[in-house]
Amino acid sequence: MHVLISTFESLTAYPRVMPLPETIPVRYTEEEAGYVTVRPVVRQTFRLDELLDMILSVTGKDAARIRQILHSGTVVYHFFRYSWPGFDADEVELSVALTRFPDADSSRPFDPAKCTMAIFESGGPHPKHLLELDRSAGAKRRIFRRKSFWERLGEIATAGKPAYQSYSFGHRADLYKLDLNEENILEIAQAAERLAAGKLRYALRILPDASIILFVCPRSAGALKQEAPRQQNKL
Fold this sequence. Notes:
Helix content: 25-40%
CATH topology of the largest domain: Alpha-Beta Plaits
Structural class: alpha+beta
Radius of gyration: 22 Å
Largest sheet: 5 strands, antiparallel
Order of helices and strands: HEEEHHEEEHEEHHEEHHE
Number of strands: 11
C-alpha cells in the first residue's frame, strides 16, 4: 500500500500528458541578474503559436527541449521570465505544431539586398556581440557620396562568399557567416572611412576585435514575433 501511495504521489507531482491547448495563461516579470528585486507581474493569455514561437527563439527546433520547457512551465527570454501551468505535450501533436515554423535551408543563396542587420562578433569559443548594425544606419549616405557604407559592405561580403549558418527564430531570419581576415577587414575599414557617417565610423572601431560578421536576412513570410526589450550595442 505504501508503494502504491508513493507511486500515485510521484505521478501527480508532474503535469499530465494532455492535448496541446489553444491558449495558455502566462505570467512574466523582468529578470535582473545578480539582484533580488521586486518586479510587477504581468498576466497575459498567449496563443499556442505565440508561446512556441518564443520558446523556439531559445531552443531552436529541438522537440525534446521544447517538451521539457512546456513541462517545466518557465523560460527566460530577452531578460524576462515567463511562467505558465506546465504540461506534458503530446509528441505527435507537438510535431504537427512545429511544422508551422520555418526550417533551416542551406540552399538559399546569400543576397545582401535582403539582409537587414550585420552582427559583428569576436572570436573564441564564446564569441561576443560587438556591434549590431542595422541596414538603415549603414545605408545613410555621406554628402557627395554615390554609394552607402551598407552597399559597400554587401559587395565585400559577397566577394567573401558567406556560409549559410542557420535559421534564427530570435531574428526570424536566415543567418550567413562571413569570416574576417586582414584583407576584408582593411576593405571594411576603408569603406567606413570614405562612406560611413561619423557615429558609425566611431562604432566601427571594434573592427580589430571582430572575427566574423553574421548577416541577418529575413524571409518574406516570417513567423510570429514576440518582442521584448533588448540591451545590446546597436546602430
